User: Fold this.
Amino acid sequence: MKLVIATPLYPPEIGGPATYAKLLEEGLPGKGIEVELVKFSEVRHLPKLVRHYAYYRRVLRAARRADIVLALDPVSVGLPAMWAARRAGKPFAVKIVGDYAWEQGQQRFGVTEKLDEFVRNERVPFPVRLLRRIQTRVARSATRVIVPSEYLKGIVAAWGAPGGNIEVIYNAVRLEELGTVPEAVAGLPRPLIVTAGRLVPWKGMDGVINAVAELHNQGSLTSLVVIGDGPERVALARHARARLSGRSILTGMLSHRDTLATIWSADAFVLNSSYEGLSHLLIEAQALGVPTVATRVGGNPEVLTDGEDGLLIPAGDTPALTSALARVLDDEELRARLSARAKESMKRFSVDTMLSRTSAVLLELGHRMS
Assistant:
């Protein structure tokens, strides 16, 4: 079988789709599926709209030589890949890891609702409504939709995609060789808390800063490292300077290897999001055995079991986050137990498991459509 993968990102670009595309490219041939990648980076330099038409033409050429087209998002590559698969008369599948319309609405168009409320609300700004129509059309047109969590299966089903077409396949994590902890981070006083992610509202970075500040008020002079970049970076840096008295660093973007090294060096890892589909970073922190505190939202409860391999807290609850961090930092036995059980539980997210399930779905689809 020959598969075309339309991917928005590819290494050395960073992000979930880049990691996933590379894993499929390397692993699917061993499962009997030949892979051809069509990378959006090859047209990104072109003007808007022009780049999407040029990308459609590239996917169409590849699709005519293939048996199936798989897009790794429902908008930027999903829409042109859907049209290309239809023109070439080939089955179309799409991987969906979040609600792009909601994310853009949160960042650019004044949407404040949580995702579970947003998917039921038809009164949204016009640009958000347009993005919603695109992702919904792509999902409904796909013969198979692959999602990384049961939570996201429910979200995509709420768009109107047939539930029988939606397959839950957990993302895989293959830990790279660790990189280098930045010198400024290595020099921070212990204990050390690390959080990472895009600096956008739903990641809750301000809540992490506030929780660490409260630990300071309680006499625990903890240091905080925030890895990542995004539209909230300047405001968060100002907030951290005001509340943490020099015991914090916003590193900006780090390489994946250096990010893993910095997380591994921490006494605790925090994911304080109000929304997650299925977080690669959360799985990686667990695989590294770093004691972890995360919010009970989205796919997080599918990764962590509260009190067994991590601690789960309500989203937006800074006192609960402060208390959970204090427990982890003060209880050496708890840290050791969480670390050991986290490493064991991460076998569910192995590369071989993900590749086997993905190849089974694609081969079944190809054989049924042939």
